[in-house]
Write a structure and sequence with these properties.
By secondary structure, this protein is mostly beta strands. The chain is built from one helix and 14 strands.
Length: 164
């Protein structure tokens, strides 16, 4: 094992970090189709906008994530849909986490498949439909809940029900 290796190994979804650089950790995890189990929006620079539900509304708290605290808190990402963002080299990928009941939306630079940000939510079901409209992502879950996510500031996401 060389010092440049970011992960020592995987056991049942566990990633053991060999470095504490969030950007390298997240980039390597993404290459292995994994993301951190952090409810909210995670950026490669270590910013984390933690999302929780409060009386039916999303509550967002800005903090930082530390790879030393992650342990086995990683999940696999299964892509269910992907859309290009018109006019640039970005793509939006969406799907589900390793448990099958979580929703994931990610903004990716298609030139090198690098991650710009990832939204993980155990408050939703998997996202199976995407539409890009006016710098907004419209993402629909398997339970017909729609999320509107700003491409540049995904922490400003809001959700609404199709049937409600």
């Amino acid at each position: 094992m060389t010092k440049s290796t970011l992960f020592k190994g995987k056991l049942a979804g566990r990633i053991e970090p060999a470095t504490m650089d969030p950007q390298k950790e997240l980039a390597n995890a993404w290459r292995n189709e994994m993301i951190p189990l952090l409810n909210g929006v995670t950026y490669p620079d270590g910013r984390w906008f933690q999302m929780s539900e409060d009386l039916g509304e999303l509550k967002v708290t800005e903090t930082r994530w530390d790879t030393r605290d992650m342990g086995d808190q990683w999940t696999y990402f299964a892509q269910l849909c992907r859309e290009s963002v018109p006019g640039n080299h970005l793509e939006v990928s969406a799907g589900e986490g390793g448990m099958g009941s979580d929703g994931i939306v990610a903004l990716i630079d298609s030139r090198d498949n690098s991650l710009r940000w990832v939204l993980f939510s155990d408050l939703s079901n998997p996202f199976h439909r995407l539409e890009i409209r006016d710098k907004q992502i419209l993402a629909e879950t398997t339970l017909d809940t729609r999320w509107t996510i700003d491409l540049q500031k995904p922490e400003n996401a809001f959700l609404w029900s199709v049937n409600g």
